[in-house]
Amino acid sequence: MFTGIVQAVGSIVRREQRDGDLRLVVDAAELDLDCATAGDSIAVNGVCLTAIELDGRRFAADVSRETLDKTGLGRLEDGDPVNLETALTLERALGGHLVSGHVDGLATLLERETAARSIRFRFEVAPELQRYIAVKGSVTLDGVSLTVNAVDANRFDVNIVPHTQAQTIFRFYEVGRRVNIEVDLLARYLERLLDGNAESAAERDRRFLQTLIESGFMEDEQAR
Questions:
Q1: 51-61 residue pLDDT tens
Q2: Rounded distance, CA 180 to CA 192, Å?
Q3: Quick one: DSSP state of residue 83?
Q4: CB–CB of 104/141 below 8 Å?
Q5: Where do runs of H (alpha helix) occur along 12-77?
Q6: Mean per-residue pLDDT pooled into runs of 10, the chain (224 residues)
Q7: Model's pTM, two decimal places?
Q8: What is the pLDDT of residues 179-218, one digit of tens each?
């Protein structure tokens, strides 16, 4: 789990093709790796990756075919900057919101506009993700926890304040850029719970009606 509060901006040192998937070597920059060990989770642009090798300020992580298909990690080139965050611990404040690092898809930047000292970004997502995005709700873009300011169908706005501009790679974004998006974790589980309850209620109703029919209290309309 992560918080969506970026701890450092690192960079891609090297891409290594590995039998259809990819290994990334990342310069962690100011990210504290002193206590990190192989097997630890590190979010790279919001994608939870497992550090398999650590060497000073660098770490390597494998990226599966599924992750390459779902996220923008496969588009990264040597030297590209990336947002980094180590996994949440009980000693750290939950300054953003609960982030799993399991990306749901890609959002496309449609507009960027200066708004006082902030920058307003408007993104577009696939229609199947729009139901998870709500005004004043949370969304994670390239690993950054953000508040949704406006929603219009499958488009939404976020404001990037000066601190976030300075501490993340948002300052490099231009129109047309595609970013990793993770919708709110609670929204996904709530939808699943509601779907499950709806299915269970329908099944209970079906069994109840069948019992009434078998007991002779009702006629089976389909048998007529």
A1: 999 999 999 99
A2: 22
A3: E
A4: no
A5: 65-70
A6: 95 93 95 91 97 94 95 96 93 84 96 95 96 94 97 96 96 97 87 66 67 68 56
A7: 0.83
A8: 999 999 888 887 777 776 555 656 666 776 777 677 666 6
CB atoms near residue 61 (< 10 Å)? 20
Q: Which residues pair with 43 in a beta bridge?
A: 48, 85
Question: How many secondary structure helices (H) and strands (E) does the chain include?
Answer: 3, 13
**What pLDDT does residue 191 have?**
77
Do 105-186 and 8-86 fall under one CATH topology? Answer: yes
pLDDT digits (tens, 9 = 90+) for 155-165: 999 999 999 99
Q: Give me the helices (H) in 34-184, please.
A: 65-70, 162-167
**In residues, how long is the chain?**
224
| Element holding 204 (H helix, E strand) | helix 185-214
* CB distance 62 to 73 below 8 Å: no
For the chain, the structural domain boundaries read 8-86, 105-186, 187-223
Class of domain 8-86: mainly beta
Question: 9: number of CA atoms within 13 Å, CB side?
Answer: 14
Which residues does 180 contact at the CB level (< 8 Å), separation at least 6?
45, 46, 47, 71, 72, 73, 103, 106, 107, 140, 141, 142, 143
DSSP 43: E
In 31-72, the DSSP E strands lie at 41-44, 47-55, 58-63
State how far the Cα of 43 lies from the Cα of 85, in Å rounded to an integer: 5
Structural fold of domain 105-186: Elongation Factor Tu (Ef-tu); domain 3 (2.40.30)
